[in-house]
Amino acid sequence: MERLPGFRDFYPEPLPHKDVWSADLRQYIFTKWREIARRYGFREYDGPPLEPLELYQLKSGDELVEQMFNFVDKGERAVSMRPEMTPTLARMIAAHERAYKKPIKWFALPQLFRYERPGKGRLREHFQFNADIIGEADVAADAELIALLIDSLRAFGLTAEDFVIRLSSRNAWQDYFSARCHDHAKAYEFFQIVDKLEREDPAKSDEKLKALGFSLEELNHFIIAGEPTPELKAILDDLAARGLGDFVKVDYHVIRGLAYYTGPVFEAFDRKGEFRAIAGGGRYDNLVKLISGDKVNLPALGFGLGDVVLFELLKARGLLPTCDSGVDVFVLIEDEELRKPSLKLIQDLRSAGMVVEYSLTPAKSDKQFKRAQELKATHTAKLEKSPGGELVAKVRNFKTREEKSGPPDGVRGLLSV
Ligand code: HAM
Fold first, then answer.
1. What is the sign of the dihedral through the CA atoms of 333, 339, 345 and 351?
2. pLDDT 10s digits, 237-281
3. Ligand 1 center–CA 128 separation, angstroms
4. Is the model more confident about 263 or about 413?
């Protein structure tokens, strides 16, 4: 039985096949994301992977709604697997924001589902590091969030030569639109054309723009000029003060496809332009109000950083670590008469936080030793009986080959050889 297209199997290393993903590397990525989010004072939240379809309709934009894994459940409810986390977050905030001091700084690592055509950097499920700040209208929050995004990528060894945050503004585009067109109903259609400029045939974009009373040439002038708005200037200054100026540039090609963005928006890309967007986000000051039915009005901003493109980029730059079992001690049981005291030793070491492996059933000494080698255990330990009948523990460091012996309850001390 095959897995569905665009879905992944995660296996522990060493990987059995080139078509499967590493569960160890996934854990490595998640651990880094959690570490950095906590460093910035963000707290972890989560929500349901299945939501009412309505939550996404009109809020995320047509493109995402078309990509949903939606169905009618056995209770006749129209539901969807979550294609993104932001509407869930807005719903959760709207329900209980009073219990939290503002600004609320939360992160999550949801698995998301989108019925896209699987290809480079795009699958039908992915994990996304989401970080959002709710209840702060000042651009200081936008800069803080972008700094978090930069650090979430630097944590893997990526530098300003590997990636860049392209910073833009929905406000700037809104002003551009309003100065030339008074039919506000067409703004979203216009934003969609801008969002696809880099992927679409220029003649086609021009044709679509002309239908709305714009021209590609004029648009390109505005993009190339790249004049930062006062808001963007403040964000750039804040990031420069942190020494992060090299990681950001103003680029009005970015406008974001999702419908709910309102202010500064941004996307992270690899510098060489080989991959699709690594991350995207921005301000969405009206979403909580919309989802709460006008009951709660809080400014908000956030980003989503996907695991698929990040993984591809880290692989291409040789930045993925080699993963091993992380076994600290392999306990060899060479004399079956000593299995019980060995089990006691294993249990004591595990209670002390060590990763301990051993052979569950009787096995020849060389087989046990080979297994310890395969697992790349840092040490082996074994119990022996001295001529006087005393139990003695022997600990060997695999790398230095140094062997030490002592009483069984002193094994922990011998491990730091
Ligand atoms: P998004 O731009 O749709 O934003 O997704 C963010 C990132 O998720 C993308 O840059 C990409 O790396 C990854 N991603 C998206 N779709 C796929 C896919 N089919 N396969 C693999 N990776 C994918 C959002 O989802 C917003 N909700 C982010 C946000 C949070 N805005 C505010 N707060």
1. positive
2. 999 999 999 999 999 999 998 889 999 999 999 999 999 999 999
3. 7
4. 263
Q: Where are the domains of the chain?
A: 10-316, 329-416
Q: Cβ neighbours of residue 414 under 8 Å, at least 6 residues apart?
A: 381, 393, 395, 404, 405, 406
The H or E element spanning position 329 is strand 329-332
The answer to whether residues 149 and 121 touch, using CB atoms and an 8 Å cutoff, is no
Q: How many angstroms is it from 254 CA to the middle of ligand 1?
A: 14
d(C-alpha 388, C-alpha 103), whole Å: 68
Between the CA of 126 and the centroid of ligand 1 the distance, in Å, is 9
Residues 358, 331 contacting (CB under 8 angstroms): yes
- Which one, of 164, 175, 32, lies nearest residue 109 by Cα? 32
> Which CATH number is associated with domain 329-416?
3.40.50.800
Residue nearest atom 17 of ligand 1, based on CA coordinates: 122
Using CB distances shorter than 6 Å, the residues near ligand 1 are: 84-86, 114, 116, 122-123, 126, 128, 130, 132, 258, 277-281, 302-304, 306, 308-309
Tokens read off for 232: 């963007």
Mutate which of 8, 126, 270, 298 to test ligand 1's pocket (most atoms within 8 Å of Cβ)?
Answer: 126
Which atom of ligand 1 is nearest the CA belonging to 281?
A: 31
In this predicted model, what pLDDT tens digit does every residue of 168-200 receive, in sequence order?
Answer: 999 999 999 999 988 988 998 999 999 999 989
Total-model pTM: 0.94
* Confidence tier at 416 by pLDDT (50, 70, 90): low
Atom 15, ligand 1: which residue's CA is nearest? 306
| pLDDT tens readout for residues 284-315 | 999 999 999 999 999 999 999 999 999 999 99
Q: Which CATH superfamily is domain 10-316 in?
A: Bira Bifunctional Protein; Domain 2 (3.30.930.10)
Is the alpha carbon torsion for 36, 88, 172, 207 positive or negative?
positive
